[in-house]
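Give me the 3D structure for Deferrochelatase.
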Amino acid sequence: MTDQSTRQAPTPTSPAAEATASGVRSGGVSRRALLGTAGATGLVLGAAGGAVGYAAAPAPATPLTSVGSDRALFHVKHQPGITEGLQACGHLIAFDLAAGAGRKEAAALLRRWSATAERLMAGEPAPHDDTDVSRDAGPSSLTVTFGFGNSFFTRTGLEKQRPSALDPLPDFSSDHLDKARSDGDLWVQIGANDALVAFHALRAIQKDAGAAARVRWQMNGFNRAPGATAHPMTARNLMGQIDGTGNPKPTDAAFDKQIFVPSSGEPAWMANGSYAVVRRIRMLLDDWEKLPVAAQEQVIGRRKTDGAPLTGGHENSPMELEKTDAKGDYVIALNAHARITRPDKNGGAAMLRRPFSYHDGIDADGVPDAGLLFVCWQADPLLGFVPVQRKLDRGDALSRFIRHESSALFAVPGGAAEGEYVGQRLLEG
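Predicted structure for Deferrochelatase (429 residues):
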């Protein structure tokens, strides 16, 4: 969880305002040396709100019908699922190309996937063998995002097109990674504000893979549903902390430079794309929940009630890092998570967090398997994710309450133009 967490897209009063704000339309030193350093642990969460009331209750902030009618566009400059507001539910799934499958098979697969994604995001049935799972629902802000892992380029003979930004992440000192749930040739991120719509897309993508690719791992997550709060507010993570306050915003002057590869960038096929770091971060909730609220606030550096810095003010008030108490101790401790993750304490490193929470049941010993499916976006992981993780590794108070259990990095090309499929400029260039 980092204070510079997932961009919280406010839930507007009207669906039209929401569409305008989020891009959702209603209707229908050397790189090798730096990567070689040990890193850290960290996580974040953000979400959007929503609920419906009984007939006698006041009208909800977001009418039920608007949830289904909201639509994200497929043919856009940047792939969908990056800058839109967080969806209520989602699936992350990685595939490996089947034995014998190469560039030709990969191109055919991305063509199928793109056609399916375009139709489903418009609220239409899958191109073939539709399951009718979401027949009664609209698009529900569905987004489908595609990426390529490091190993994809070897499998397809495209090693010369592999970006240097896709170099493997360093082995961070606090990692406990399950290799079977890490990496992958191909990655798909699915998000929607209706669980059946999200599952429908997941099933269609899995079926489209056919004999060309097999599932390597899959993870399922959730966020707050639209309208669940009386007014727009930043979400809480599974630790109960307001999380999503300091994420970069598209209105920031440096946003595009920090998050997206420029149109003139290298390699050319990654123009307007981004790099996604995906981490499954388990929260040790039994340990966390034993702490008094005051101790939890010291770990984070913010009040639990409203997310304000311990130095006072409101959620978006600046932290007074030099402020001390009567004993002369810093009000926001030196190892507080919010202090360590500030961009101005990490050479300006910034990334756009857009995660999902997860809960995969209870272990045999009664411990919940729950936490965060951390997804962050940046123009270069070496300038975004890596320096922040390295800084956290040096003494983040939150580290003893979380555990990174899987990791992956994917190159996510820019959006497909009309008549194109995602990745076409790589696979046919």
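Confidence is low (pLDDT under 50) at residues 4-28, 37-60. Let me know if you want a second pass.
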